[in-house]
């Protein structure tokens, strides 16, 4: 697994490549989703435009059919009017011809029959006139109906036109809104593409910087490892020299200390020998005194015994009692004196031992303090030497 160094921490190159791959996949998915959204918007706009065109075509077709129906109805009415007028004209002509022929035929008739025929002709003319008026009224009524239908058709056409205008305006507004949205999306897409290109450039630049830094770091690490090996070798040599020097110093110190301890041991042995000699002399003197005292006591007892043998019995008993008392007293005094001597001697020995122990403790404490001080000084010297050596190595 390759690793590179970024700043003061290590980065896994494989992890960085995986992150880049995931980021590229996310960008591709985002671009595909954006393209799908734009495509759906275009499809909706095209569908709405086609629906509007279909509605306009249907409305135009309905208007055309209505106009054709109105025109055909108007043509039928006009044909009916023309037929009615032609029929009325022909009837009038036939009536006139009939009246004329009847007038010619009945010129020889009586005046009463002429008057009757004249009345009939007037009635026929009135009927024809009424039929003509009726036909005219029917024509006017049909014209009014046609005009009303035309007006209604015109109004419907105007409504359709207004509806069409409103629909066109609404469609235009929707198209403008959609166009604005598309433009905004396009701007966003361009901005995102710019950001992505900028990010890609920055990533490429960062990648180049990482690679450059990795190369420099590898070179630096190689140089650092080589320098570290040289420094470790020199440092080990320096430590070895320092350890040897410290070992020599410690050996010399221990030798001097052993010599001092040997001298002190000899002095202590001499002092103990002197104390033993003094104690032995004191014991010898005590033994001599005790022996002298025992001899004196024995002589005194012999003397008293000889005196006792010469004196009478009562006197002997009294002297014996006194002698026993004196002997007991002397024994007690001697015992007390011996105990006092022994106590004084033991106390003397204890004081000597105590003084030796205190002196030895003081010497040991002083020696321990010197060792600690020497160790601290030696540690400071070693630390300073190591720091100076490391600084010299770094300066090189």
TrEMBL record:
Coiled-coil regions listed in the entry: 56-90
Annotated InterPro entries: TPH_dom
Span of domain Trichohyalin-plectin-homology: 118-390
The organism of origin for this protein: Cyphomyrmex costatus
Protein name listed in UniProt: Trichohyalin-plectin-homology domain-containing protein
Domain of life: Eukaryota
Region (Disordered): 152-207
Coiled coil keyword on record: yes
Basic and acidic residues compositional bias, start-end: 152-166, 180-207
Keyword set, alphabetical order: Coiled coil
